[in-house]
């Protein structure tokens, strides 16, 4: 970009900035008046009704995996019905499934009672969803979790990840799930535990962008690499594919390196940056011993190891950077802007080769904006995030305008726009992150919902709107609600997943599993009492457990059923203990019997006609023994 | 009932019992083959689609309040769309709303991380839903919670309630919400803490039926009265109304007083009992000093105070006892039976007056079955629970048959039957517990759901089916899914509730609330650090908190917004702290700053265009101060 052009751009952007603020205020004013399109205004309500209706007994075409934000959960819905089907607990205990109550899941949670789930990512093979795992990042406690889509259960939680604070810039996967991207939204002095004055933020705080390594066979996650960055706020990311395979991209805001009231201090500059990391070169640099270990993770400093990371100027305060299905473009959207920029990967590579730089940040080269951009697409106000269909179209969420713009990759023509309500954040199209998107459906994930549903008091849910993108014009189909707070979602064709419903007996490797009521019983060793228990329709064996006050009691419960939906629960009265044992599963409960008395336990999860009769008693001796009236 | 009749009945019942077992096995076999009615078989799919479709921006007609079972939550859906709208956390922490993380809600939860929500009950005035409160009982930890329907928040948790173990027999309200019914599903030696051998269960363990008192102005719950009962398992209840006002009814099973494998030992007798309690007489007896205090609650012993409680023989292993809208009948359904019994309140009162008893249990008179029953209605296999419409019809769930039977009160004619899938437990009709049910809709709460939805692994949701009961024949409309495990639900007309969306500033009586950023700040007193904080679009004030390692930090956060849906969250990185502060609310967070370092905090709940910029830093001094590489 020449100096003159830059000046013009800055002037335009300033005016735009002022305009954007007015529009924001206007949009909020409009929202407050409560006007909303009626069914008639929307048109085709009957068509929308029949095309989203899934008759009792029929199933949906797509799974929608919603991030559950600070609920710590992932929500599963069906599309096109948009019906909530299931909740997968990840970073928070969930007694409905007993998650966080048995020893195994308690250990995985590591003492944390919540997380802030942001961006679900289905694992990929050759750039296509392979339906094996779903990764979700935790913005609150800097963790990454892996859900196995074979049984829809959380299998591993990695973290808190050293050196990363505010793990927002994930979980985006490389085309063969070699890495899940990670980044620091909040810069801190490193290593963690160090304190530096906030006044020296610009020089003594650091950002990090990183790749978490995934074992291709098991999905086991481990600390991969990290790159030390200036103290920007790294926001969202995406992995390259095809011609851009081997690259990872992240947006950043607060490139002002400001503190305080960021809404003012971090919106001073006209442009922020996209960081482009060549992770294949990073791998080589780590192998060549060029990384330093910080808190157990190999960290590369771009000042010392050049050629790994470049910065590309981007519209002010960007959110999404999204790689097109063919891997040729990455789309950068600044939320305080009315254009979105399509950057060209080939041009980026040429600019790097030619050292076509317009500056640097802490030694990291800044590529010349005009040399890398292919087009500025006039999508509308507040572009945030872009997804794609099968016909070479892109769909960009317009946060300020509360709309979705459809535009053409290559011709850069805006083809259609549809209003959504209100304040869309992310959007997702069917298989929209893959090399082969399906088109057909788009889900708009809207951040506010007031007036869209029956009033449920001050704590309002979020709104999601299902849009038909199968035709030339987008058509509004349905509106559903979900818990706070879907930041992103992914849509995968139902037939790509084949979950099991029963854990095969032969797969249960728990040494304390038992499969016959004859093996059930209570064994005492000093003050340690071990119970091996069977749960099967419709009783527990043993149904009586006698212990002394102060004993440490460990119960291994095996649900010996091999029939689908035959779950059993084990709830212990006035103790904080409830686990749910799926067919073929063994779970471990451990507690100190510190209260004398007689405590019933019972099956909490419906199992049969005689479920209500499935109960037993824990007798904790050491209290009184008469019906004393006082 | 004469001896000959009784013998005949017993013979019939034995054959029936054997038949029922075969039917159960057959039903499970049918279920396993996966056959289900298609949309075409159901007929009228297009009509069902349009009649359940709620276009974007339109709202539902009814609120459906589902019990969330061992999730500890209440779920809110809209009818007819059956869309999930909101989750109300009650007995379990829920980081999505910050419930269980601030000092106020943490205290209310009392250290418990779960509960087993069973039967929601909307408060009533003159036998009609008044839309003020929703009560839910906790079968696991013997508690009762009150949700305020003004803001959909849990306001009080009473318990664990002394002397009650397995609080299943609630929460059913008397016609002016004088009491919420309570009962022991599991008998234990009393007072709690006492241990008696399980072998002496029949004589040394006790059941309890009870009324929890509700303050008519504030809804404040307190221990009302309790009645000492034989060690039966008390199951479900209902309150009388009209001619039966002043009476409370509970079913009981295991009147064999058995232990061990209850599925066998507690199903020996041909009949179990309904307990009928005259709570107005109970009030007089308590006032007359006839109660003994056990663990702080006035308990009446029917052996010593006659005239309070009567037993009525009922079909084997009953679940529901349901009072008709006019209060003339109570319907008792035994799940191992093919008939449901309509008992006549007038006949009951006559039998009591005439001492028409067929025996007694621990001194409690057993009324003669034939003197109290009006009709045995041949509804079908496995009747569980009955609800009503506006036309004098009753609807009984048939657990074994997986169907709903519609039948006429008075003529006792079965008018219609509709299959549901699978294994319906409770059902609910629109305002079906009131003196004026609406008819129109019925929701079948089905206990199993396999094959009805996209496969989500072994932990399957429950299924609910919406049925149109507005016409002569019932019509299947829709199927939705919810978390484990709805035991009961209630449907209330949407216009009966007028929840607030913002807490008016003038209602905030928290002495630590502040409404101006000028009043925000940090005050140290020894090692206690108190922060008064304002959250407002889009910053925290103060945005920097500096403390020393080991300090006890208390933060009072006020969200000074007075605009709907303008929630703010406060999440503290790598600490276990997240609260959500609704507009006009003040919340308290307390923690010991035991880890040195710099910890970002940020707004977790979307609030504005500059939400992403709403952040600050906690600096905990006492660690290192250099970027040490190791």
Summary keywords:
disordered C terminus; mainly beta; homodimer
Can you walk through the features of this model?
The structure is a homodimer of 630-residue chains. With 630 residues, the first copy, chain A, is mainly beta. The first copy, chain A, has a 5-stranded mixed sheet with strand order 8-9-10-15-14, covered by helices on one side. At the A-B interface, helix 3, strand 2, strand 3, strand 14 and strand 30 of A face helix 3, strand 2, strand 3, strand 14 and strand 30 of B.
The N- and C-terminal alpha carbons of chain A lie at a distance of: 88 Å
Which spans of chain A have pLDDT < 50 for at least 5 consecutive residues?
1-42, 626-630
**What is the share of helical residues of chain A?**
10-25%
Biggest protein-protein contact in the assembly: A-B, 183 and 182 residues
Enumerate how many helices of chain A there are, as a single number.
9
- Strand order in the sheet with the most strands of chain A: 8-9-10-15-14
**Strand tally of chain A, please?**
41
Largest sheet of chain A: 5 strands, mixed
Pairing-aware structural class of the strands and helices of chain A?
Answer: mainly beta
């Amino acid at each position: 970009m020449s100096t003159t052009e830059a000046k013009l751009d800055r002037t335009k952007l300033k005016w735009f900035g002022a305009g954007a603020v007015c529009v924001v205020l206007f949009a909020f004013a409009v929202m407050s008046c409560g006007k909303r399109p009626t069914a008639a205004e929307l048109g085709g309500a009957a068509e929308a009704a029949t095309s989203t209706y899934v008759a009792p007994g029929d199933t949906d075409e797509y799974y929608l995996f919603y991030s559950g934000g600070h609920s710590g959960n992932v929500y599963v819905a069906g599309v096109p019905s948009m019906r909530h089907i299931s909740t997968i607990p990840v970073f928070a205990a969930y007694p409905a499934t007993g998650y966080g109550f048995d020893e195994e899941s308690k250990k995985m949670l590591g003492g944390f009672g919540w997380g802030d789930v942001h961006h679900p990512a289905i694992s990929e093979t050759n750039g296509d969803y392979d339906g094996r795992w779903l990764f979700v990042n935790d913005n609150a406690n800097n963790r990454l979790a892996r859900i196995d889509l074979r049984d829809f259960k959380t299998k591993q939680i990695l973290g808190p990840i050293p050196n990363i604070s505010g793990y927002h810039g994930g979980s985006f996967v490389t085309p063969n799930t070699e890495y899940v991207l990670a980044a620091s939204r909040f810069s801190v002095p490193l290593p963690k535990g160090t304190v530096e004055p906030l006044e020296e933020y610009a020089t003594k705080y650091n950002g990090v962008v990183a790749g978490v390594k995934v074992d291709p066979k098991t999905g086991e996650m481990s600390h991969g690499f990290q790159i030390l960055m200036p103290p920007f706020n790294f926001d969202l990311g995406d992995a390259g594919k095809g011609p851009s395979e081997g690259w990872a991209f992240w947006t950043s805001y607060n490139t002002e390196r400001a503190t305080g009231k960021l809404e003012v201090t971090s919106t001073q500059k006209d442009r922020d940056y996209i960081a482009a990391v060549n992770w294949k070169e990073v791998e080589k640099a780590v192998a060549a011993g060029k990384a330093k270990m910080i808190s157990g993770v190999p960290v590369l400093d771009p000042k010392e190891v050049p050629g790994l990371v470049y910065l590309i100027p981007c519209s002010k305060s960007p959110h999404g950077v999204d790689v097109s299905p063919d891997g040729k473009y990455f789309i950068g959207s600044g939320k305080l802007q009315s254009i979105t920029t399509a950057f060209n990967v080939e041009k980026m590579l040429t600019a790097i080769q030619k050292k076509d730089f317009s500056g640097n940040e802490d030694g990291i080269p800044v590529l010349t904006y005009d040399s890398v951009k292919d087009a500025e697409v006039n999508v509308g106000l507040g572009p945030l995030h872009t997804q794609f269909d099968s016909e070479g179209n892109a769909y960009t969420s317009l946060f300020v305008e509360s709309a979705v713009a459809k535009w053409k990759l290559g011709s850069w023509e805006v083809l259609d726009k549809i209003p959504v309500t209100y304040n869309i954040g992310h959007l997702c199209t069917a298989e929209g992150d893959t090399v082969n998107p399906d088109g057909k459906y788009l889900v708009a994930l809207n951040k506010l919902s007031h007036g869209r549903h029956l009033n449920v008091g001050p704590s309002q849910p979020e709104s999601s709107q299902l849009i038909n993108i199968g035709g030339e014009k987008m058509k509004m189909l349905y509106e559903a609600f979900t818990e706070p707070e879907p930041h992103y979602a992914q849509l995968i064709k139902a037939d790509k997943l084949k979950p099991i419903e029963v854990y095969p007996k032969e797969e249960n490797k728990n040494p304390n599993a038992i499969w016959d009521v004859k093996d059930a019983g209570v064994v005492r060793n000093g003050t340690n009492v071990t119970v091996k228990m069977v749960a099967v329709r419709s009783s527990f064996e043993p149904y009586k457990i006698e212990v002394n006050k102060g004993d440490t009691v460990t119960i291994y419960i095996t649900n010996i059923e091999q029939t689908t939906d035959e779950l059993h629960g084990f709830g212990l009265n006035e103790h904080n203990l409830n686990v749910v044992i799926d067919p073929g599963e063994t779970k471990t409960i451990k507690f100190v019997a510190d209260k004398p008395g007689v405590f019933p336990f019972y099956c909490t999860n419906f199992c049969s006609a005689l479920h209500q009769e499935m109960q037993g008693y824990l007798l904790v001796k050491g209290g009184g023994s008469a019906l004393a009236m006082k």
